[in-house]
Records
---
Amino acid sequence: QVRLVESGGSSVQAGGSLRLSCVASGDTYSGYRMAWFRQVPGKEREGVAAIDSGGRTSYADSVKGRFTVSKDNAKNLLYLQMNSLRPEDTATYYCAAYMNRAYVALIPPPLYSYAYNYWGQGTQVTVSS
């Protein structure tokens, strides 16, 4: 089992920045992919950014050039640096991971939810205009 805990969500004005963090603990493996998703009540969960153990990344078109996903392998940490935030970025942000002994990389790392088997509880980001 893998446990994911997000932090860093807050309220910010449009144009501001936030950095989300996600720490993974438990049965982590050297091969994995991790991602950030977000969800607004009444809407489907949306993939925002993903990164794999090889350092490959992918981004949703809506956040390209504004958000950056990164990881600290030594600390089992995943980050999402969010710049130039917009009101439409308001959502609950979830950290997700796929970790398995039989891990096979998907290139680029996917942004669909069924590619991940572990989820955090979410952290709220609110952007006001």
---
Amino acid sequence: VQLQESGPGLVKPSQTLSLTCTVSGGSITTNYYYWSWIRQPPGKGLEWMGAIASSSNTYYSPSLKSRTSISRDTSKNQFTLQLSSVTPEDTAVYYCATKFGKLTIATMTDPAGYDYWGQGTQVTVSS
């Protein structure tokens, strides 16, 4: 499975960040796959943001839930992140990643356990 992030590298404060992950070598509707967005701010660790399951159920980090939306386009085999009202603290490398299995909340939200990752895309929030 290969994943590739795409989207703007620069977003202004208060705007909405939108990123797309294009998946190849597998279908986003295959049972028991979870498709996540994970980010890494400069000098900090990985942060799980949210996921969309093959069933289309969505899951979000409590700290980001009010600003985050994850959706998918099965015809294009893509899933998308939208993060609203961004601030400079949202500056990070953003990754899409996938994990297979009957996951618990703990295993789904642990970035270390993901099987396949995109290369990551730098997003800077600045005016």
---
Amino acid sequence: EVQLVESGGGLVQAGGSLRLSCEFSRWSFGDYAIGWFRQAPGKGREGVSSVSPSDTSTWYAESVKGRFTISSDNAKNTVYLQMNSLKPEDTAVYYCAAAVYSSSWSWVPSREYEYDYWGQGTQVTVSS
């Protein structure tokens, strides 16, 4: 069982920055990849970024490449999503999720169905 709690959302003007945090706790042995997803009003949930347990692999959606950076602090069981140059179209509820991961993989999960545990979400609103 993995529990995840997101924080750091809020209201920001276009061009501004926010840093989201995902604090996770794990109650069973194993490695997990952590991913960030978002869901805008009236749209489906889409992948934003993900990171492997040892930070060796990362993935970014094309729409956020060069603007968002994912990082992790394993000592704090926390994954961060630094979001810069925010645009109104980044407005969404942002979720973090955990997926069972194998250290033998050279890739990191990026699709919703690959993730087993989800946080409750945090709202990000970017005004124009």
